[in-house]
Design goal:
This protein is of the alpha/beta class. The protein contains 15 helices and 21 strands. Helix 7 packs parallel to helix 13 and helix 13 packs parallel to helix 14.
């Protein structure tokens, strides 16, 4: 039943698969269980750091159901390079009906909000590719509500398409497929559907639950229909926020501007941000000196689902940092300092990330497998499944597999899911090596399947001899 429920949410899960805590929570609640997530992120422990009366106030605020209003969905556009992400984002930007009243979208701040003719709004993260998405997620923030997967109809499913699918599934974000470039003579949307169905994305007309819209990002054909479908999914997700609370958001982009100092784009997720508010973001803090929208207009306040560029940080925050408004300067500063300490602890956690040497005693082992050819890949996955059966207390989950070299994106996925990476006759590229070092992700390279399996088995038994 649970697998069926997961399928309904667009997640193709096996019995021993790790799923996103948010999704687990939803499923638990649907089955009448009370569940709670203890996140590694900052918010839980921060609430604990607050005095009792503050805590009570926060709980009180969260109970004000009546104050909840609909908020715009936050959408990320993913897909293989050159399949049309940038073009689609540009075309969508032009459909904005608010442009006439407020001026067109003129600057890149990492996200923009558009208004449709029916008055509904959608916020797009406009850093195309899943780099932004994975970086944010590796840092514990789930920003996007919906992922639009762009697949070129003349090119079909490619390695980065598969990566994007895995990223979205791992984050529990529903996927809408935009089958792009249908204006091209060689376009074959049916082929794209067939290929996608191999990855668990079954189009609605075939009895599945994945919305697939054939579009042309270039001519704008069906783009409106795509937007309508985004709203449809958003409606099902029932996205609500309370505009009458102090603002909470996430840092989408940040930079040090030679004239303005530390500048960051915040996506407001809940509450309303006002000019003059004190805030913390990660281990930085400040006061909103000024804020601007994607049109360069200065704003006095910004509500849920709105991206804004803010001036007034003491230091440059990091993308993925949570942004929280505080009542006083003192509170903001103290919290920033507290977080700085927590960050040091995080670095320690990085040190403790899953490695071959510490596999023994683990109950769940997440693995990413990359290989040079399909045959080897299948053989390795099969061997890992057999190992998983052999070691009864251990479940080995292959969370992502593919043909080709190990990429930075594989490493970010490994970091976000605490996985190790096995490469068979393939190597990490320079960016992947750098990321692996930074994130302390273990990559093992093999050229003989037997060696790989033997090492795994030894590692599980805690008998692996140190290599280096
Ligand atoms: P990205 O790498 O995914 O951001 O892809 P781009 O948006 O940069 O598009 C790559 C190329 O495909 C560009 O030359 C675009 O003009 C072209 N392109 C994108 N969408 C379409 C489309 O719908 N039809 C046609 N014919 N070309 C497109």
């Amino acid at each position: 039943q649970i697998m069926a429920d997961l399928l309904q949410k667009g997640i193709l899960a096996t019995v021993n698969q790790t799923i996103d805590p948010e999704i687990a929570l939803q499923i638990a609640e649907e089955h009448g269980f009370l569940a709670e997530i203890q996140k590694e992120g900052e918010e839980v422990s921060i609430v604990e750091e607050l005095p009792e009366e503050e805590k009570a106030k926060i709980l009180e605020e969260e109970e004000e159901e009546g104050e909840l209003v609909e908020r715009p969905p936050v959408v990320t556009v993913m897909g293989h390079v050159d399949h049309g992400k940038t073009t689609l984002l540009d075309t969508i930007r032009k459909t904005d009906v608010a442009a006439r009243e407020k001026g067109g979208i003129t600057q890149h701040i990492g996200a923009y909000k558009i208004k449709l003719p029916n008055g509904k709004e959608i916020t797009f993260l406009d850093t195309p590719g899943h780099e932004a998405f994975t970086t944010l997620r590796a840092r514990g923030s789930k920003v996007a509500d919906i992922a639009v997967l762009v697949v070129a109809a003349d090119d079909g499913v490619k390695p980065q398409t598969v990566e994007a699918i895995n990223h979205a599934k791992n984050a529990g974000v529903p996927i809408i497929v935009a089958i792009n470039k249908i204006d091209k003579p060689g376009a074959d949307p049916e082929r794209v559907k067939r290929e996608l169905s191999q990855y668990g994305l079954i189009p609605e007309e075939w009895g599945g639950d994945t919305i697939m819209v054939p579009v042309s990002a270039k001519t704008g054909q069906n783009v409106e229909e795509l937007l309508e479908n985004i709203l449809l999914v958003a409606e099902i997700l029932d996205l609500k926020a309370n505009p009458n609370k102090p603002a909470v958001g996430t840092v989408i982009e940040s930079k040090l501007d030679p004239k303005k100092g530390a500048v960051a784009t915040i996506l407001i997720e809940n509450g309303t941000l006002h000019q003059g508010d004190y805030f913390v973001a990660g281990y930085t803090w400040g006061k909103v000196r000024a804020m601007f929208d994607e049109r360069g207009n200065q704003l006095k306040e910004a509500g849920p689902g709105t991206p804004v560029e803010i001036l007034g940080f003491n230091e440059v925050p990091q993308a993925g940092d949570k942004f929280i408004v505080k009542k006083t300067e003192r509170e903001a500063r103290q919290l920033a300092e507290l977080r700085k300490r927590k960050r040091e602890e995080e670095l320690l956690a990085k040190k403790a990330r899953l490695h071959f040497e510490n596999l023994a005693g683990q109950k769940e082992i997440n693995i990413i497998v990359k290989a040079d050819v399909q045959g080897s890949l299948e053989a390795i996955i099969k061997s890992l499944e057999e190992l998983s059966e052999k070691f009864e207390d251990v479940s080995i989950n292959v969370i992502h597999s593919g043909i080709g070299g190990i990429t930075e994106s594989d490493v970010m996925l490994a970091a976000a899911s605490n996985a190790i990476i096995l490469g068979f006759n393939v190597r990490p590229d320079a960016a992947a090596r750098k990321a692996a070092e930074e994130e302390n992700v273990d990559i093992r390279i093999y050229s003989i399947i037997y060696d790989l399996v033997e090492d795994m088995e030894k590692a599980l038994k805690g008998m692996l001899e140190p290599v280096e």
